Amino acid sequence: PAFPYKYKFKFAGCPNDCVASIARSDCSVMGTWKDDIQVDQAKVLEYSKTVDIEAEICDFCPTRCIDWDGKNLEIDNANCVKCMHCINVMPKALKPGKERGATILIGGKAPIIGGALLCSVFVPFLEMDPEDDYADLKELTDAIWELWGEHGKLRERTGEFIQRVGLSNFLEEIGLDPIPEMVMAPRSNPYIFFDDEIFETDDE
Fold it and tell me: Name one GO molecular function term (predicted).
């Protein structure tokens, strides 16, 4: 059967996302890495002659995970959000890690009917193995297409469909577990509602 509406893929080689894939596609495949940023301390020292590393790199790091003592640059990679700022400023001294793959984001679109939407992270890191013919990405796409194709309304993009049915229901149907990266903002409602089965007694 025909899809409810179009489904766009866009591919970005790194988190700089020069093609604006998160704003213009239903599925954004963005290159990323999983291990530590590669640091060439000798090249960092060369950059320090022309770049104020403390002010232009450390102070602009969104998670403050970079320290510079005047001789060595230390990165707390566990808190790195891969914003690419430090690599953009010192491309000869810093490089992405060697364990590379892609972040999969779903649900973006331009404003036509329901307004613009940005993609949300669904898979923080996915190995993109050409020898495996990108089987994991295809499996995720097939699950989304099957659900959206069956229950989507006419001219309803994937992001609008997720808003209508709810993210938790969408994730459950396509077989993905919720992860912290999917949270767009802290909850504003202090009340928590549990599923009915939690209150079932042992006798039942």
Answer: oxidoreductase activity
In this predicted structure, what is the pLDDT of residue 89? 97
Nearest to 123 by CA among 111, 141, 110: 141
Beta carbons within 10 angstroms of residue 12's beta carbon: 21
pLDDT digits (tens, 9 = 90+) for 150-160: 999 999 999 99
Locate the domains of the chain by residue range: 9-33+101-182, 38-95
Tell me the pTM.
0.86
Closest CA to 180 of 93, 118, 121: 121
CATH topology of domain 38-95: Alpha-Beta Plaits (3.30.70)
- Please report which helix (H) or strand (E) contains residue 24, including its range: helix 21-24
Distance CA 18, CA 201 (A): 55
Tokens of 195: 């599923």
Encode 87-108: b = buried (16+ Cβ within 10 Å), e = exposed: beebeebbebeeeebbbbbbbb
Q: CA 10, CA 56: separation in Å to the nearest integer?
A: 31
CATH number of 9-33+101-182: 3.30.413.10
Pairwise CA distance, residues 152 & 95, whole Å: 42
26-57 pLDDT tens trace: 999 999 999 999 999 999 999 999 999 999 99
